[in-house]
Write a structure and sequence with these properties.
Layout (H helix, E strand, L loop, with lengths): L5 H4 L9 H17 L3 H9 L8 E2 L2 E5 L6 E3 L1 E3 L10 H14 L3 E2 L9 H9 L9 E6 L4 H15 L4 E6 L7 H6 L4 H10 L3 E7 L4 H13 L6 E5 L10 H4 L1 H6 L3 E5 L6 H4 L5 H10 L4 E4 L4 H13 L5 H15 L6 H4 L5 H4 L6
Parallel strand pairs: 4-11, 5-6, 6-7, 7-8, 8-9, 9-10, 10-11
Antiparallel strand pairs: 1-2, 2-3
Helix pairs in contact: 2-9, 4-5, 5-6, 6-8, 13-14
Length: 357
């Protein structure tokens, strides 16, 4: 690559944000989160969870995506679920309805439904719909060549000349950060694609462990590279068990990295626990200082539920948050309703290790 230095290609970490500073921030905010039940309401106020009507489109509030400055809808359309319909026309209806109704953030991944999710989204984005979307997809490969191939395949499937946000998918192993940042690793492919105008921003995702997320962030800072976004589970169960909210969220806010909340309903596992209702789950996630809450919508009624929740959302009081957490505390203790953390059910790259090549 021509002058292919990651530190020259993304926002540089501020000079004061040294590795020691990062660790101090992590430790300090983690301890504060653990001992001060009032931390998150203060974090919310500082991050400016917007009131309804501020930066809104068709009633859907918009928020700022961290250091990118981009405005994105407070709820985003999950990509996995839009590849599951028997009729691809129904998938396209869901995507286009979301865009028409005010959602602009679209989630996807190279591996979702064997590529069907990207193919269907690509078809839905024709006829001017691409201009309405902030398009995100993810890749699995940890190698420069493999990542390059997956990026190009995603571009073809999505029928677009650029992806707004590319994320490294399933950072779930302790070895993943070093593999991605290694010479001839996936980061070099992403940086090259950014230089070529194929992608605009770079982030990463994972659902397994807050400690692995922190290691990925620490690795990036050691390489003088700051991610634009980080995606992680943020929900009523996570708050009680091996919590991304308590351990990772404060660090992202401290470094102005976009926060992408996923699994607000825990892939349905929270609902199976009968500890909370769908709207309560979405409201809790929206009340966190997220840039966007990504939710799976496999039918138009489920999409309308998400839209209505976003449009009517008002910041929750400390008492309301405490009541929701009290309802889920017992069910959350063992992680049985967060199998993406405690089992391999959701680990596509564990079941398909060739995707990492």
């Amino acid at each position: 690559m021509k002058n292919s230095s990651p530190e020259n290609e993304n926002q540089k970490m501020d000079g004061s944000l040294t590795r020691r500073k990062f660790l101090e921030t992590t430790v300090g905010t983690t301890v504060a989160s653990a001992v001060a039940g009032s931390l998150l309401p203060h974090v919310h106020a500082r991050a400016g969870v917007p009131a309804a009507g501020v930066d809104a489109k068709n009633g859907v509030p918009y928020r700022t995506l961290g250091n990118t400055g981009e405005k994105v809808s407070s709820v985003g359309l999950g990509g996995y679920h839009i590849g599951m319909q028997r009729d691809e026309q129904e998938s396209m209806r869901i995507i286009r309805t979301a865009l028409d109704e005010g959602i602009n953030f679209l989630d996807n991944c190279w591996d979702y439904n064997g590529g069907a999710s990207e193919i269907r989204m690509g078809k839905a984005l024709q006829d001017g719909y691409r201009q309405k979307a902030f398009l995100m997809t993810k890749i699995d490969s940890h190698t420069k060549q493999g990542a390059t191939n997956q990026i190009n395949e995603s571009l073809r499937r999505l029928q677009t000349d650029h992806i707004d946000l590319l994320q490294f998918h399933e950072v779930i192993r302790d070895t993943d950060p070093e593999a991605i940042f290694a010479p001839n690793g996936a980061l070099e492919a992403a940086v090259a694609a950014k230089q070529q105008g194929k992608i605009r921003y770079i982030g990463f995702t994972g659902h397994k462990s807050p400690e692995i997320h922190l290691k990925m962030l620490n690795t990036s800072f050691a390489h003088k590279f700051t991610f634009n976004s980080v995606q992680m589970p943020l929900n009523l169960m996570d708050a009680h068990y091996d919590s991304f909210e308590k351990l990772v969220l404060p660090v992202l806010l401290a470094h102005n990295i976009g926060v992408l909340g996923m699994k607000p309903l825990g892939n349905g596992l929270i609902l199976q626990s009968k500890a909370a209702e769908p709207v309560e789950c979405l409201q809790y996630a929206l009340n966190l200082p997220t840039s966007v809450v990504i939710t799976g919508c496999d039918t138009l009624p489920i999409l309308q539920q998400a839209l209505q929740t976003a449009r009517t959302f008002r910041p929750l009081s400390q008492e309301q948050v405490a009541a929701l957490l009290a309802k889920t505390e017992k069910a959350a203790q063992t992680g049985e309703h967060e199998l993406y953390k405690t089992a391999h059910n959701f680990d596509g790259t564990i079941m398909n290790p060739q995707w990492l090549d």
